[in-house]
User: Fold these one by one.
Assistant:
Number 1:
Amino acid sequence: MKKALITGITGQDGAYLADFLLKKGYKVYGTYRRLSTPNFWRLQYLGIFDDIELVPSDLIDSGSLVEALEASHPDEIYNLAAQSFVGASFEQPIGAGEITGLGVTRLLEAIRKVCPETRFYHASTSELYGDNSFEYQDENTPFAPSSPYSAAKLYSHAMTRIYREGYNLFASNGILFNHESPLRGLEFVTRKITNSAAKIKLGLESKLELGNMNARRDWGYAPEYIKMMWMMLQQDEPGDFVIATNETHTVKEFAIKAFECIDLNWESYVEVNEKYMRPNEVSYLKGNCEKARSVLGWHPHTKFNELVEIMMVADLERWQRWRKGEHFPWDASNYPNEKSILSRKLNKDTY
């Protein structure tokens, strides 16, 4: 039985990857940070929480990383842990560097010393390209990071390559463009849109405030991108791959489609608020995944409209279930604004 260690297993990608590997017969270990309020809702949502061997560890603590490797003896390591929200990295730039940048070097050093034969996948990002002027971005497009998050990711991306070339580790970077799902965090604009639209539909909220509506992104479906991570570690040689849909859409398009799914006119509810504008905005990202197509045989199946609908249906269903008094794994209680709604004593006769 193969064994895999996933850092960041409680996140969107970590949970989907754990589910994918379990179905392939892997023994799955996952690292998590000790918090006052554990964040295991995604693993519970997918029904796999009891199938995971959880190991407390942190990317800022080298000793805990060594212990995680010694406890799991993994054949494959998937590094998905990071301070992953771009906006928050402007508020905590040093933390982003420590966790997202130096944390990966700590992990690579631990692998080099403890289990150098283990295959390593690092989650890189399309944010590396910054506010570029290229029609599309592939493995040869120059990087120009525009945020503390992407600067930290550039460092970890480069260190993964350096350890591959300098120490002969099987270490690959997956340059993933935006990938979304119902398990996306509410701080991300896609989930913010579908979650707010669901509340508006049910009369729980009256408006949705967004920042740059014209920002364009290459949005894919997260469960499909997970398979690519695994495929990269099944190759004869390590390498770096862009994973994308080769399409780009604006935040405005995402909002329009989400409200269309629930038969509402977006213009009646969406407002622009300057406080959601980033200091350095990346205005355009469009990937070219031709290398992944030719080498890995991978290509995306879920297109933009279907992705929005999947997320919109899921969030509407959650709020409907909550309104009926059901209890289920969900992230709403982790956010102050959502928690205030959940705590209201609503008169069910109004529904």
Number 2:
Amino acid sequence: MSGEFLKLYTLDSPPDNVYFLEKGNVYFYASNMDKYSIKGNNLIIGSTEIILTHMLSMSTMRMETAITPSNSSIKKISVKKFLQGMQSFSFLMNTSIVLAQQVLLTNRVINKNISSLKGVEKIIKDLAISYYKAVYDLESEYQKRKLPWLNDILKKHQNTLTFKRGEAFSKSQQSITVETSNQLSENLVEYPRGSLICEEDTKGEEMYILQTGSIDVEIKGNKVATIDQPGTVFGEMALLLNEQRTATLRANNNTVISVIEKKRLREISEKQGDLLTSIALSLAQRHYFNIIKINTVNRALLEKTLENPDNDPYKNSGQIDKIKTDINRLKNEISEAAYKKDAEFLNPIIKILN
């Protein structure tokens, strides 16, 4: 295989280049068990860790191994040239499209693996998110109050595997938000309550930015979420990838939205310069947290097999017990601090862990 394939980078190696794939395809190993590929012409490959490290101050080693057939045509791009290129629309668009593909494909890996876990993964996800939210809120209290004993608790819990898992599950689902701008006033559309904005399984030729109001997200007729934060960007994946929409969006009340057509994206990006950059940065983060999720789910699958070879549905995964141990430890430390320090402001955090 070494004579037929060229290794671009390996897991945990320094992200010192991106690559310009003139023609061919690249295989990404998201884990030892999971791979996906991207094929095409003139694509910018391997940008996630560069964006995280140099544009988001999240120093990150390579999260995947990437290889390409020896007959692919590919060139290195230095970090400096990549960052310079991110100032141009066409370069940003190219980077965003590849990142969107990686998010889509890693989502498929996650969904495939989750289907093998059934209820166990949901329990892991819910417990890890509760732990993450409690630690996140604890950090917010520390930033407001600067109490040393709060920082002592934080240090014990911010680097745990449970925190990283909860962060991955939470942040990979976060929406992109941008500053609302008068520059987009001519693109505003008002939707009366109950009106349809876009429909599931239809072609996506526009993306949207919420200005005022709120939107219900429906999948197969069931409401699954609400978008209500001004500046939230949605519909960008369908627009970038020419994919069908995965959800129906409906105005929950009188709602005003900036509607951005794909054919006008360059023009609008020049008016609101942070729009496409914000999308690229958010996609890089989603890709990063998807890789963490893949490894989390894979660990759960492995432990399920090792600890429950007979597939007994009444046996919990060992991961659940470990997460519960972390939650109880955190809860006990916060409860003790709240009592000894007379810190009633910690009570809402304790409730998250109940």
Number 3:
Amino acid sequence: MLALVALAALGSSVLLWQKLGTIQEQLARQSAGRQAVTDSRVSEVALQRSQLEDLMQSLSRSRDENLVVDIEAGLRLAQQQSQLTLSAEPLLAAMRAADQRLSRAAEPRLVRVRTAIGRDVERIRAAAVADVPGVLLRLDEVARQVDDLTVANAVGPAAPLAARRAEAPPARPQPWWRQWLTTVADEARSLVRVSRIEQPEAVLLAPDQAFFLRENLKLRLMNARLALLARQTDAARADLATAAAALGRYFDPASRRTQAAVTALQQMQAQLRSVDLPRIDETIAALGTAGAGR
């Protein structure tokens, strides 16, 4: 009897172990399947994340590349405008705008471009570049004043006889014949004027030649203007020197207008010693490096 009970217990134990093994195998297969599904989903998520990061980087690079190309095109156009107008202001304004756009982008690899822009801006500001638009305005102003300048041999109107007599100190009454001689002497004195002229060429200038002298001076100033617009600085300075020499030779040096015109021409000659703007090669090189992704 005991043997039968033991055999039955042993058989049930074996069946229980078999069922337990089967359950363990099922659980293992289910766990492995779930792990495979989880791994697959994790791989998909990782792939999607990688693709998203690549897309974001591509969009970022595309945005930065477009920004670099746009800035470079704007700076090149501003440089051409500065060369045509002979003024540094268009280029400086474009470089300040480019620096502001780069600062808003906040991209680390564009920091070198901002550094290059800062250096080129300081180089342009430190250069002794002539204010050509201002020189052109002063040239026009001097040309308009030529007709009002007094030639050196011009004879001004004499003071009226009554005014000269009023300015003279009172004298004792004189006989009529002495008064008559005084009047004749005053009239004769008003017919002859004596003045000192330093340049002999001005003495030989006929009154009807004064018109041609003024027109020739205007043409000389116009030639200087055209030479300056054509970037022929040496020719412009030579014309200004010739005009200043003509002013000193043929026009009244004691006149304030003549002195102001000569001073203006001399100052313009000094300003035109340098009209070439420094190039922005460092900024262009930095933009090329940034555009290449380096």
Number 4:
Amino acid sequence: MVFEGFFRMFSKDLAIDLGTANTLVYVKGRGILLSEPSIVAINTLTKKVESVGKDAKEMLGRTPGTIEAIKPMKDGVIADFDSTEQMLKYFIRKVHNRKTLIRPRIIIAVPSGITQVEKRAVRDSALRAGASEVHIIEEPMAAAIGAAIKVEEASGSMIVDIGGGTTEVAVISLAGIVVSKSIRIAGNAMDQAIIKYIRSNYSLLIGERTAEAIKIKIGSAFPLEERLTMEIKGRDLTEGVPKTILVKDDEIRQALSETVQQIVENIRSTLERTPPELSADIADKGIVLAGGGALLKNLDIRLREETDLPITIAEEPLYCVALGAGAMLDNIKLLKKVVVD
């Protein structure tokens, strides 16, 4: 159709890392132009979207009764179809400077363990948000490409992508995922573990944003060379008043220990299922860590101790999935090999 070709001239194809905690949008030829929290604030009376992304995150825990801050993604998949659609519409318009006629082709990365129904929900949301066509690839493959792993080689490579909702472990060879495991335990589970620990040990109630800040500042997976402390504020559950306490890094490490151990076990079980020839390759090259969870202090040391393998943190762990998906916009041949629609 003539009009479709006309609009394609002005179109900017996109790659989207639709994450539980954050959504990143890569625009063809321009790189990552958007990285915002996957949150939508909705007016419960009018059902109107009040804000999306960073502005909506500022509202978490602070909204009046008529405003609800929703996280439409849970454990790497869509939990709220309508909110996800609204969020995608907002982000697509934002990267295109609010041009309403743009109908881009979109590549979306999803967890390797999601069902066909969940994949369909992702595709339908993107199409309803304005995409002209949607291609779905698996997050570990996108993360590996974004981490500069040569996925098309006849050689085994292991990627561990620790996001907000899921931890993806995969062994890749010849542009395919040979062995993989996806568990719905990652950054958000760490935040909840910190909230639970502070509540149990200090009778103090803290919010998700505070827990995330604690994880980033003093959280660790292995003892630190320098002791760290952090002053945190919350509500005293005994007296019901605001209270300030001081927490230490070893306490938070204890709080995170069970979650970190589950991630370690996930990696071990994947290694046990890896074919011998590929295991030999991984023994030489080691494991590459990606995702926000890769930034947990001393996680690489902990994994080195547990697996006796070399551990490398990707150069830009937070952006690996978006960069890998974005690379597919310029490499149709490779996209055809890795697409899972």
